[in-house]
Amino acid sequence: MFQPLKGQHHVSAITKDAKRNYEFYTKVLGLRLVKKTVNQDDTSVYHLFYADERGNPGTDLTFFEIPNAGRTYYGTNSISTTSLRVRDDKVLQYWKERLAEFDVDHDEISKESGRATIAFRDFEGQRLMLVSDEDNEGVAGGRPWDRSPVPVEYGIVGLGPVYLTVSKLGNSVQILTKVLGFKEKRKYVLDDHEVVVFETGEGGTGAEVHIQERSDLPVERPGKGSVHHVAFRVENEEELQKWVDYLKQLRIPNSGLVERYYFKSLYFREPNGILYELATDGPGFEGDEDFEHLGERLALPPYFEEQRESIEGKLKPLDTSK
User: Fold this and answer.
1) Class assignment of domain 8-314?
2) CA angle, corner 159, sides to 156 and 161, nearest 5?
3) Cα(83)–Cα(205) distance, integer angstroms
4) Using an 8 Å Cβ cutoff, are 48 and 36 in contact?
5) Taking phi first (over 0 means left), then psi (-120 to 50 degrees means alpha), and beta for anything else, what does residue 290 get?
6) Are strands 158-166 and 208-213 parallel, antiparallel or unpaired?
7) Which of 65, 150, 204, 317 is deepest in the core (most CB within 10 A)?
8) Strand order from edge to edge, sheet including 32-39
9) pLDDT at residue 2, as a whole number
10) Rounded to an integer, what distance in angstroms lies between the CA atom of residue 118 and that of residue 109?
11) Where are the domains of the chain?
12) Parts of the chain with a pLDDT under 70
């Protein structure tokens, strides 16, 4: 009926401090800020998009700034780790040294998932992981920005597997496999609990969801350093409309097609409460800024442009022009 989902599109998380967030993700992790805009559902707060050189789908890690966000009480029914892809195993040694240099809380290089990884936390406790593409044969990564403080050969090339911690595995599996078309790939053990790996499309590092059932944990209470939602890639608006119709046919509550200007979206929650988005690959981030100046000014979709003065007046200034 329609094409398989193509893999991760973006992951959106919560920060309390846009300035420190910008400094960490651009100066420490070396990602490019490809769009500084606002949360279209609440234009009083920033929405920051970090990615490869031009924000190719599958490379975007985004943040909503919520200045009054409290702490996150980690637990189940959550997107518990966001992973970021690098070229190969050797690159992880560079990152281990870089994380230490910037006093970033990090673990040792590990291979529990079948790939070399290094887990770390940002200044708000956001749970992150670098994962090696050494043996990746699936979805291709993006291209690091050549003006990043991190040399291109060590740069982050996109989003890796998304890790879910859920209270009832079967509920999540039902949606992933029976509705979204993911297929079970393999299993491994992490912290004495089994993790089940699912993949879609071409598979590989950029198209996997890893799910661990933890009935021993409380439900997560989100705040700063938590993940808001994960989005999966759809080719175009025609394909997305098919998904809208399909979810309606299945009587799964959803947002319907939502215009986000940089892409079009569809939102719904799976039974464990995790928010999923399906998002089109285009049109992308260069419709209102040219490639050389992505992320340098506050970009607003045309339907918000008349409100620019009011919107800017509510935002704390954030200099991203350098």
Assistant:
1) alpha beta
2) 125
3) 9
4) yes
5) beta
6) parallel
7) 65
8) 32-39, 42-51, 60-65, 8-15, 227-234, 275-283, 263-269, 258-259
9) 82
10) 5
11) 8-314
12) none
